[in-house]
From TrEMBL:
PANTHER family: BLR7761 PROTEIN, YJGH FAMILY PROTEIN. Pfam families: Ribonuc_L-PSP. SUPFAM superfamilies: YjgF-like (SSF55298). It comes from the Bacteria. This is RidA family protein.
Length: 129
């Protein structure tokens, strides 16, 4: 697999995403449903944004690993949240995770009216191999 990052500017670097990712010669593509703060028994979290974000990241990692892919090969990661204000108050968690895993992804953050049950954050990803 060949991956090329396209960034005509520098300002997005501090925001933990890239403008575009070109991928060629892939072995596979994994399309991941939105991952949230739901436990192994299917119970939705009632916690605040930060612990929900941490759990959503853990669940995303679990799906990626189970499929035999790697987080560093995430090429698209969209964030759905019921509050961008709350999400950006713990954005360092997201930024540290992308940095630690060498994730350079195209990304969109959307504030939505609601998510399933008590959930505040959902991460939807595309990963290549």
């Amino acid at each position: 697999m060949n991956k090329r990052i396209v960034n005509p500017w520098k300002w997005q670097n501090e925001r933990s995403y890239v403008q575009a990712v070109e991928v060629t010669n892939t072995e596979g593509t994994l399309y991941i449903s939105g991952q949230t703060a739901i436990d192994a028994d299917g119970k939705s979290s009632t916690e605040d944004m930060k612990p929900q974000l941490i759990k959503a990241i853990e669940n995303l990692e679990k799906v990626i690993e189970e499929a035999d892919y790697e987080c560093r090969n995430i090429v698209r990661l969209d964030v759905y949240t019921t509050s961008t204000e709350e999400f950006f108050s713990c954005f360092d968690v997201f930024q540290n995770w992308t940095k630690e895993n060498n994730v350079q992804q195209a990304s969109t953050v959307l504030e939505v009216k609601g998510l399933f049950e008590t959930l505040k954050i959902e991460l939807e990803a595309i990963v290549v191999k």
